[in-house]
Write a structure and sequence with these properties.
This protein has about 250 residues and is α+β, with helices and mostly antiparallel strands. It has three domains: about 60 residues, no CATH class; about 70 residues, GMP Synthetase, Chain A, domain 3 (2-Layer Sandwich); about 55 residues, no CATH class. The strands form two sheets. It has a five-stranded mixed barrel with strand order 1-2-5-3-4. A three-stranded mixed beta sheet has the order 6-7-8, with helices on both faces. The longest helix has 28 residues.
């Protein structure tokens, strides 16, 4: 089985697809089948002859190399998404719904339009969906996301002056705690510890292991950060992720 690591638009995480029989190379654009539908992505790396440790492991298919028509459809979708977003925000305001639209997205074949939004609680958007379906003439999906995901989608610049980590290279959000700031002897000032999303900055975890190890050594437990765990074998996802990120650009 041949596996391709493909990054979809607006997502830092690399997804694995079965590309057996499809001539994909790093840097190519590919049309893939996702759980949401058909999408366009860019190949990060290819692994030929991969044998899953678990025979029951399955991957979504990479359907084909992206054609000129696919790329044009992708550009046209971007224009339609902008118009759909404007219409959706207008209807949200008219109906007085306590929600904030973050992004509108069309699948490559325009069989579905997905609207990402944030809200403090559950929202009854059934009438809004009817408005959108009547205007856009396609299936509508409303997806509520958190504030950290909102920052990833919108992007921006952090207090360090660089682009947000979540919008450039972070594939997953790790749990961040105040204890990490305490271990690093940082001032517990919310204004200095919070990112643009209002949550604790993701970068607090980057050097936490070193500080935790130093703290343990000064407490008389050299080299020990926590309980010793027995080594475990990597599953297929972890093994592929390791292979895909070894040569990946932008990986810290």
């Amino acid at each position: 089985m041949d596996i391709a690591g493909i990054r979809l638009r607006g997502v830092c995480k690399v997804f694995h697809f079965d590309c057996t029989g499809v001539p994909l190379a790093k840097g190519d654009y590919a049309v893939v089948q996702t759980d949401r539908g058909v999408a366009l992505g860019r190949v990060v790396q290819r692994i030929d002859g991969h044998t899953p440790a678990n025979p029951k492991t399955s991957y979504n298919k990479a359907l084909r190399n992206a054609s000129a028509e696919d790329l044009l459809a992708h550009q046209e979708n971007a224009r339609r998404e902008s118009e759909a977003g404007v219409f959706c925000m207008k209807r949200i305001g008219e109906r007085g719904l306590p929600m904030k639209l973050v992004r509108a997205e069309y699948l490559l074949d325009r069989s579905k339009a997905i609207f990402y939004f944030t809200a403090d609680g559950r929202i009854d958007f059934r009438e809004l969906v009817k408005d959108l379906a009547h205007e856009l003439r396609t299936r509508i999906e409303m997806r509520q996301i958190g504030v950290r995901d909102e920052s990833r989608v919108v992007g921006g610049v952090g207090p360090c002056g660089k682009e947000l980590c979540c919008a450039t290279f972070l594939s997953d959000f790790e749990p961040i705690t105040v204890k990490m700031a305490k271990d690093q002897k940082l001032s517990l000032n919310p204004a200095k510890l919070s990112g643009v999303c209002g949550r604790l900055m993701c970068c607090l975890i980057y050097e936490h292991t070193s500080y935790a190890r130093q703290k343990c050594e000064t407490c008389g437990a050299p080299g020990r950060v926590g309980p010793v765990e027995a080594p475990t074998e990597r599953d297929d996802a972890e093994e592929l992720a390791a292979q895909l990120t070894e040569d990946e650009e932008g990986t810290p």
